[in-house]
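Predict structure. Chain length: 414.
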Amino acid sequence: MKKFQIWIWLGVLAVGVGVGLMNIPGVNVAMNFIATVFTRLFRLLAVPTIILAVVTTLASLGNGKEIGRMFRTTLVYTLLTTTAAAIVGLGLYLAIRPGNLPPEAIGVEDKVAQTTGEQAAGFSYTEHLLSVIPDNAVKPLLDGNVLALLLLCFAVGIALAKLPDSEPKRILTGLLTGLQEVLYKLISWLIAVLPIGIVAFAAQLTSEVGGGVMLDSLGKYVAVIIGGNCIQFFIVLPIFLLARGINPLKALKAMTPAVLMALFTKSSAATLPVTMENAEQRMKVSPKTARFVLPICTTVNMNGCAAFILVTSLFVMQNNGMPLSPATMLVWILISVFAAFGNAGVPMGCYFLTLSLMSGIGANISMMGIILPIYTIIDMIETAENVWSDSCVCAIVDKSVNTQSDKLKAEYSR
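Prediction complete.
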């Protein structure tokens, strides 16, 4: 089954598209229900996957230098790939040059913009960053605050690694490892029935698109967003892999199930169980590396989000008559990269984060209401790119750590 997994998924994808094109109301309701069930189940498993993966990996590494090396490499390549995505987005924006929308087109969407503006009013990026620092051990788990959970997991995992070897430590690490194995068994069961979910996801998307998504007035803007994501996906990220001696075609083939899953769920966190399974079983990355790097990348490695924030911010500022000098564009590259870096855990994070940033500079955010209907498509493509980027960073870190370990072994053997 694993050998033919991709072909099975592609087959059921075609079936789902066919079901969606039929556009039968009763069938659409059923497909939406099934898609929601699968999304909820993956989100249910995502948080414990992050917690157990980070804690057990840190506890088993034990070597502070190895942990530090893995973390530094992950952070460096996360920043490099995210910055590259923003630069690609800027380059396409300057090349395609989306024009201004007519004032009446923005006015038509005032009601939608008012609703989204009210939602954004309660969103504060500063408060989000403060929420990363937990003041309650249980609240981050209940809220699904992934960054706060990561901090707790890092603290617990490093503490376990630093404890002297003793019976209580062995019992605790054994319990955590056992829970992790149970979790992976649950994930394997869910993946086994995932073709049913893919049919529902594909049918849901096809019926939504068939219902009429407004693209005409935003053609060039959409071309910049989607084109930038495609360039990052098929050109930039493979170059990073080739630079480290990794075959991008083999890596993409191994991670295709996870990328497809991300496309439909629109959630890197919900896709994490599949991403980890593919990285370990198909891409042959060390379990220690995959279970350490991927949970981190899932929360901070947001290539697609950085490009969306930059391009959308420039588009909104341009339509507000704000000058876009080279210095302004450079500043917004930095803003988009670091905003995306801290975006994890926010519902419709990129969209509302951009709203917040635009509100902060006094821009008229009415046109964000026009972008909202097409954001579903953009979000799908961005999430698929994010998961592919996570996989690339994971493969690079694994190659770097193994290379460093081989060098150290060679030095000691002398």
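Summary: The first helix runs from residue 5 to 22.
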